[in-house]
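Subgroup meeting minutes
Present: P.N., E.W., G.H.
Scribe: E.W.

1. P.N. recapped why we're keeping a running log of single-chain structure predictions: easier to compare across weeks, and new members can see raw inputs and outputs side by side.
2. G.H. added today's entry (400 aa).
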Amino acid sequence: MDDRQPFDGLKVIDFTRVVSGPYAAAQLAMLGADVIKIESPDGGDEARQMSPNAELAARNMAPMYMACAVNKRSVALDLKNPAARDAAERLILAADVVMENFRPGVIDRLGLGYAAMSARKPDLVWCSISGFGQTGPRAGSAAYDARLQAMSGLMSITGQPESGPVRAGYAVVDAATGMAAAFATAAALVQRARTGRGQHIDVPMLDAALSHMAPSVAEWSVAGVTPGLSGNQGTSGRPTANLFRCRDGFVMMAANNERQYQALTAAIDAPALVEDPRFQDWESRKANTGTLRALIEAAFMEHDGAALEATLDAAGVPASRVRDIPATLADPQIAHRGLMTAFDTASGGIGQPYALVGAPFSFAWGGPAITRAPPTLGQDTETVLAEAGLDQAAIKAAMS
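Output recorded in log:
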């Protein structure tokens, strides 16, 4: 029985940096692709230094970088060096996929762009990630996640009406773009298997953000309603779909239907929330939201978040205390799913044990796995170039 992973034997050249592109390439790497990360010898991917932990940043092994570098090999090449460009060209022409997130036109000026490479290798799948796409009035404009959160409208619907918009607490547009790029690349590979033809994929961060916001966008494009800041209010608009204080923190609840509302009142022993005419149906509850919230929160304040979460869950009311990341990782469900892969002190060049998040899905067989620690800068340069057929003189010239 063939239990190989989907991308086993696939070679990917990864020119990407920071988050969106590296995250995309990591998805392919966890499914078996040999992902070769091309970095500048002068510090490499800038994400290697993006950390408040000065020691890890000094080691060029910041957690941001490590999270998106699993299963990859690192090759350090200065693409301004003609010998290094020749080596990169050889790697590209031996690959199945190239991923890059240079500004549009940059890699073309190096002579390594899609047009030049696909002319020599027509079945090459090339994925270009950028802020705004390869064409259009903003094509050359710089983009980072925070700018795109503001520009896409995401921040206009995130935050409290009283205090104003906030950005999401993680690089949500980068992640959305990376997953879109991975999906598009997988689709292009299926297309290639059927047609024998390669493909140039154009993945703009702005497009990815709007795609993930499709229901909110439709509120305007279909109904003519401009969504605004809704705080922690659930999209259902139900007053019981919101954030509530408890004795030691906060609980996010999503009681959206009558059965859940009735279960909530029973779970917190508050029959008045059923009997009081102000709370007889959703219209009256919405009209008396402030009073209803105060009564629910008073009941919640008698309980710790963990106990309240367990009580509501047992009653069939969707709710969770607001957890920090350590508390989330301590949940037995995470261990059961095997989502985290642990590394010992000998792995990854940071001198301490650590764990990294894997793929967000599993297969019955041949599924995603983390099998290789994030590489130190250039650790695989000689090996990869030798595999590509360069002799020692050529390798030395490429690395100079």
